[in-house]
């Protein structure tokens, strides 16, 4: 067994609890821990979590390219779905925005309410 393991990925936002609420509804996760400026959510049956921390000076990232003086995208979440169009509609209904730039037919790039890019995708061929 490895002496280290990834426990969570942390996303900054103006309001950690608001952004956590979006991902709770999108992913069907549960709250595992919370503090006034931090929330940890994760799958109900265990596994790697997703955390959010309030950063008052948070600036949304820019994607697909960095423009001078704007926050560069550092990471994005890939979320596998069975029904791409249906899940895009559901995500938009929860507060996401469909990005103007869509580079692939089997992937949709969206922005969460804090402006973080994330991708909904469906496999075009069996994975594994």
TrEMBL record:
Residues 9-120 form the Glyoxalase-like domain. It comes from the Bacteria. This is VOC family protein. It comes from Streptomyces hokutonensis.
């Amino acid at each position: 067994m490895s002496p280290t393991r990834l426990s969570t990925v942390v996303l900054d936002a103006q309001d950690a609890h608001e952004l956590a609420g979006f991902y709770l509804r999108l992913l069907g996760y549960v709250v595992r821990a919370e503090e006034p400026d931090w929330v940890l959510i994760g799958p109900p049956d265990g596994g790697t979590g997703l955390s959010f921390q309030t950063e008052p000076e948070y600036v949304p990232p820019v994607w697909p390219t960095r423009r001078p003086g704007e926050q560069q995208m550092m990471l994005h979440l890939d979320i596998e779905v069975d029904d791409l169009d249906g899940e895009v509609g559901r995500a938009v209904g929860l507060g996401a925005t469909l990005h103007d730039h869509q580079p692939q037919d089997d992937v949709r790039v969206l922005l969460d309410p804090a402006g973080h890019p994330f991708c909904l995708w469906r496999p075009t061929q069996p994975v594994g």
